[in-house]
Amino acid sequence: MTKSPRAARSLACLLLLAPLPVQSVLAQVPNAPAPAAETLPGDRDPWLYRGSDIPRDPEWHFGELSNGLKYAVRRNGVPPGQVSIRIRVDAGSLYETDSERGYAHLLEHMLFRQSKYIPEGTAIAAFQRLGATFGSDTNAVTSTTQTVFKLDLPNAAPASLDETFKLMSGMVTAPTLSASNLKSDLPIVLAEMRERGGAAKRVQDAMQKTLYAGQPLSVREPIGTVETLTSATPGSVRAFYSRWYRPDNVAVIVAGDADPATLESYVKKWFSDWKASGKLSAAPSFGDPVAPQGVDPKNPIGETKVLVEPDLPPSLMYAILRPWRQVIDNVAYNQGLMVDSIAQAVINRRLESKARAGGSFLSASVNQDDVSRSADATFVSVTPLGDDWQAALRDVRAVIADAMSKPPSQAEIDREVAELDVAFQVPVEQQRILPGSKLADDMVNALDIRETVAAPNDVLRIFRESKRLFTPADVLKHTQQLFSGTVTRALFTTQKQGGATDEALRTALLQPIKPDASIRTAGNEKPVSFEKLPAIGAPHKATAQTPTGLLDIEQLTFANGVKAMLWPVQEEPGRVTVKVRFGGGKRSIEPQDAPYIALGEFALVGSGLATLGQEDLDRISTGRKMGFDFEVQDASFQFQAETRPQDLADQLYLFAAKLDLPRWDPQPLVRAKAAAKIQYATYSTSPQGVLNRDLEFYQRGKDPRFATPKPEAIEKATAAGFKKVWSKALSSGPVEVQIYGDFDKASTITALEKTFGALKARTPAPSTANVAEVAVPKPSDVPVVLKHHGDPDQAAAVISWPTGGGSVGIRESRQLEILTQLFTNRLLDAVREKLGVAYAPYVYSQWPVDLAAGGSITAMAQLDPKSTAVFFQTADEIAQDLINNPPTAQELALVTEPMRQQVTRAASSTSFFMGQLEGATYDPSRIGTVRTILYDYTATTPQQMQALAARYLGKNNSWRLEVMPEGKAVGAVAVK
Questions:
Q1: Residue limits of the Peptidase M16 N-terminal domain (predicted)?
Q2: Which ranges of the chain have pLDDT less than 70?
Q3: Where in the chain is the domain with CATH 3.30.830.10?
């Protein structure tokens, strides 16, 4: 029984989109699902639930075609107008023979290349015409056990739905699989393989080979091998396709804004004629984990491996492995999983407490997982501190040994039960706003792990009815089962030669361990409650409460300078979002204090508030839905949380108290410094890592506040310096509070009066926050060259054109999104589809609304070192052609139609609107710009795009950056 997840929307994604005109917004906010269609014939004996006593989710409707194809459909109106289609083939890389390694993934690519209804190389354009964006709305994924084709169709009218089912059915049932298709797709797959190489891939390969020794999983990565892929022929690929791409091995999952009977009719129309010859091949054996002969059955230590990777943090993982067997997914089985979850949560909380207290390891965790239908495994992960990895392993094992020797206290169990209860409550409260794409993905996941799905209210009911099982004795029994198995295997990744050996790792695991009960503290701590926390100050009423003129959003102003925007939306039941923007962001930090920016992102929240340390913050929110995300932006800092109506007042207290009653516990800073130093070297392991580390630094004219701090700078940071920098940041600059979702306005205003209204008057932000001059790189056609320590066939190339910033130019920034999509389409076609030198080149635009400058258009790709010049030449040619010639109306429509559909879907999200309104309490012009979003993102002309390209994309405006492998000759270019 897969558990219905919390409704979640990606703010970062939504900020790239745009909503409908304001007058149409209310019609787009999701309402309760329309009544389900009459029971469909397949519902009388739903294939997913055969043999199970899990209650059928009544929203899903099931059926089987005469050819054996199974399907499941349901109505869902989130976002409005969208239908999510998933076609799942029950075959992944574990279904390949030795000579077919990589074929399942190669087929995924080739099905998009050409098929019955899609001419060669036109799939991207075909789906763009339907409003679907390639890569996000249209995608596919191949794993070890399945291949899934995905499409989220916006504006799913009958005609577009019919066309989409037609195109997707043709891909799966009648792909071309020609020699020219293979020739076109092979370089793309090899480019994808190259991008995935490097240290992380070596660790992944070593883990697979060690932990699953003797099983196909040890050598069956979906990407395959160069040898098998380059040896592929149209005939050999078609043989794999014919063996597994059959109607009786496929399921079609559809969830969206349409009647289930209608969705069922499209499945029948386009898949009923699919025929297969002969019987379905039996799935190959995935094998079982087996202990080597002669090991102690009471402590069956098997393969151990030490891998030296100088640029990766030390990391130790061992796994207790058991054979995987398909289970009957019934209530009793799921009750056992719930006890397993509690047992793991108890141990993980103890491990986290021990790490917070300081010691031999930075972090550690345990996690049970059924891996690729190959093993039932309990994983123990440890990040040691320093060179004494044996001490870290010993300390972690000692905590686990204690959990296996004595039952936990009822207080510990009750705490984890309270956390799980909230996790299961939230989907019940928010089931009206669960997105259809996530529901479809959950169904696919259930099929892959051979389990069912259940409605959120049934999951919660079963959990609450099972609480009698959550006793110390039961949890102890399940803990002992979790850490017992057929064989234990381990991998240790270390930075230094000679610090460990395979045999030393094995010896360490064989050592007897004395249980460590020192961390068992639950029930002995001093009670904490919000009622006993100090008041922030005297409550103050708002001096003004005014409508913004936009929907039902109101603005409150307090005498201390705090301003708040409130938007109660009953159509989003059970969910409230709180955002607090304050201070001056990175620009308010003095350049010499730049390392404290990264340390603050790690440690500021954990350093506590009022009388609460980090452990207290965890305990006081037990059984509550509260959060404390922290983000450093260009010109502001931000706290954010998703909470519930009943927890809102206390959530506001936490945020306000962090501003006015900060605490400065030193241990979170110590831990943050250790983590930052360990992390730094990992950036050098790949071109993408180097870009993550350095690109923003170069884009911002080498401003140290946008650099990733080096270990030596981190080491110099002190607790006194941390407090000095962040106490100033917390206490200065404007404060803007946003609250939107399901809340009572009157009681929320009262809570604001006691929290943010009670703050001391704010001091102005430091003057550096108001600097209008933002450094940008000087134009140059000589690339900055950075080096990575990864594979010699890996490189990255970046070309960037500075643009602008500020809310005054918001329309231009939105138009630039159209231009970058035009550029991306051309770049994909040129360097991926035609040249095959890069897997996923892309172009993006940044426009900092809170700063007067600092924006850019950036094109990048990961490729082999010899192809960087080709990338730069191609990007220059595309840019110059956009300057010289306007795009055709047809080409422009392939961009604006998907963007129009993205805009429409975003209109159903309150979070998007409030994201657009960030800063509007101090810059009211932003309210007006919300009204023009649809127009700004979609209304343009070829000539306007040409003019925009001429303004920004000239060759003399750009600068370049290369990330090359260490030791690679770079000729005449300057190495930085």
A1: 82-218
A2: 1-38, 521-524, 766-773, 968-976
A3: 31-271, 301-510, 547-763, 784-965
